[in-house]
């Protein structure tokens, strides 16, 4: 026999194992209960062998020992030595582990693999059947569309009279209600639009006059101008939407999803159905119609007291805070109101007279010669423009245009938009928004809180959204 390292003689090794008792210990262990899993692993691996009711009953037991005992006693499959598993012959319970004979463990594992493979094949068949069905239905629908277009082409080619009839026919509205041609409303017609009863009650029963109300809020002139500073952006910068919007749908895509798209734009008649909510309830539909009327009053009525503007605007903001779907509807209505203004964008975005401090007279002169008037940009109750620079039509249109974008910036703070709606709104802002409102609206959209705010924007936020910059203002809240 050569005595070299890592060289073994089979006969000598076998004799050594036999004489040291290793083979006898292995035989005794094999004839006993060699497989010893813990109770939690046993219940987790083989609990699905029971029926649904039995499995729920097993999970309701307090300890894993009782669950394993219940599992072994309710297995009605012949996998033991004498049929169903029995205590003593096939398994025994220990303090922390279950002792099983090798044959029972092998049978349990084989049964587990069989059921898992069968279940996997069932899931695969159902998934493939669904995928094949979707593909087949899509192919049939595409074939029907192609066939209908081709048959129409052949019919028009073979019958020229049919082509002339289809070209000159009148499209009948699908809705039961009669379609009315939109028209521009006058100031008197806008003033006569009805107001919701709860808002009308607040407007009628308010106790404070405008001077006392503004003095209570104490919105004064700015003492300085500051910008939001972010770590990831340069100083004096705004937070911008970082994702590409070149592939986003235009806003008209959302508007065209509704049934009626004609009364969209500048000073047109109020809507009689929502734009974005195609399956709105009766309460949501009534709220959308009332909101369209309030928007016309809020944006286009000139010389409206700031207190009434604030109450009506807060009513709309509260609707957006209460219902997330109404926030999207109000936002789309406000954006659609900026379409089709009678003046070009350059004149609408010019500096307004109320932005220039030199055009405002002193409070003493105003109290003697002019009625009191509040300027959102100036933040002064006595700020009145001189007679030498009277307000003309373009000034009123410009201020209405700025008010509409002020409320767009405010409605964007009432909650987060969906991932599909964000790029559509950003694209509309960058294409159609005024220069002073694009950065603040985009900033409001990106930094919208994940948890919706609980209160509508205050008068200070109105002023920030109107002027287009963040200002450091001396402010004292009433409470």
TrEMBL record:
PANTHER family, alphabetized: DILUTE CLASS UNCONVENTIONAL MYOSIN, ISOFORM C, MYOSIN
InterPro entries xrefs: IQ_motif_EF-hand-BS, Myosin_head_motor_dom-like, MyTH4_dom_sf, P-loop_NTPase
Superkingdom classification of source: Eukaryota
Positions of the Myosin motor domain: 1-113
Name used for this protein in its record: Myosin motor domain-containing protein
An annotated Gene Ontology molecular function: actin filament binding
Species of provenance: Paragonimus westermani
PROSITE patterns the record matches: IQ, MYOSIN_MOTOR
GO BP terms in the entry: actin filament organization
Cellular component, GO annotation: cytoplasm; membrane; myosin complex
Keyword line: Actin-binding, ATP-binding, Motor protein, Myosin, Nucleotide-binding
Family affiliation: Belongs to the TRAFAC class myosin-kinesin ATPase superfamily. Myosin family.
């Amino acid at each position: 026999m050569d005595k070299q390292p890592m060289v073994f003689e089979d006969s000598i090794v076998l004799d050594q194992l036999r004489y040291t008792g290793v083979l006898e210990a292995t035989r005794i262990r094999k004839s006993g209960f060699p497989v010893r899993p813990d109770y939690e692993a046993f219940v987790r691996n083989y609990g699905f062998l029971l029926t649904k009711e039995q499995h729920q009953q097993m999970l309701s037991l307090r300890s894993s020992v009782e669950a394993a005992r219940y599992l072994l006693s309710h297995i009605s499959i012949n996998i033991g030595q004498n049929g169903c598993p029995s205590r003593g012959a096939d398994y025994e319970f220990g303090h922390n582990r279950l002792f099983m004979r090798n044959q029972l463990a092998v049978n349990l594992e084989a049964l587990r693999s069989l059921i898992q493979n069968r279940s996997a094949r069932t899931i695969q068949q159902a998934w493939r059947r669904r995928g094949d069905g979707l593909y087949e239905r899509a192919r049939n629908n595409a074939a029907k569309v192609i066939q209908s277009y081709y048959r129409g082409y052949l019919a028009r080619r073979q019958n020229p009279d049919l082509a002339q009839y289809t070209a000159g026919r009148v499209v009948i509205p699908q809705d039961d209600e009669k379609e009315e041609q939109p028209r521009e409303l006058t100031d008197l017609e806008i003033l006569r639009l009805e107001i919701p009863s709860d808002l009308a009650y607040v407007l009628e029963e308010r106790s404070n006059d405008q001077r006392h109300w503004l003095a209570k809020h104490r919105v004064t002139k700015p003492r300085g101008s500051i910008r939001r500073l972010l770590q990831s952006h340069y100083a004096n910068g705004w937070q911008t939407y970082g994702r590409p919007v070149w592939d986003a749908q235009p806003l008209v895509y959302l508007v065209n999803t509704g049934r009626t798209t004609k009364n969209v734009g500048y000073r047109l008649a109020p809507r009689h159905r929502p734009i974005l909510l195609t399956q709105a309830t009766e309460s949501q539909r009534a709220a959308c119609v009332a909101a369209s009327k309030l928007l016309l009053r809020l944006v286009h009525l000139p010389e409206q007291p700031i207190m009434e503007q604030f109450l009506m605007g807060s009513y709309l903001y509260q609707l957006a805070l209460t219902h997330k779907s109404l926030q999207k509807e109000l936002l789309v209505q406000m954006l659609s109101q900026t379409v089709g203004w009678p003046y070009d964008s350059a004149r609408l975005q010019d500096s307004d007279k109320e932005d220039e401090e030199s055009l405002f007279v002193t409070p003493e002169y105003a109290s003697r010669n002019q009625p009191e008037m509040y300027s959102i940009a100036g933040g002064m109750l006595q700020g009145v423009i001189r007679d030498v620079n009277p307000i003309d039509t373009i000034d009123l249109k410009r201020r209405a245009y700025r008010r509409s974008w002020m409320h767009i910036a405010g409605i964007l703070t009432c909650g987060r938009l969906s991932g599909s709606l964000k790029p559509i709104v950003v694209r509309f802002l960058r294409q159609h928004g005024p220069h002073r409102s694009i950065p603040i609206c985009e900033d409001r959209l990106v930094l919208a809180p994940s948890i919706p705010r609980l209160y509508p924007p205050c008068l200070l936020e109105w002023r920030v959204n109107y002027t287009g910059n963040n200002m450091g203002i001396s402010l004292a809240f009433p409470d």
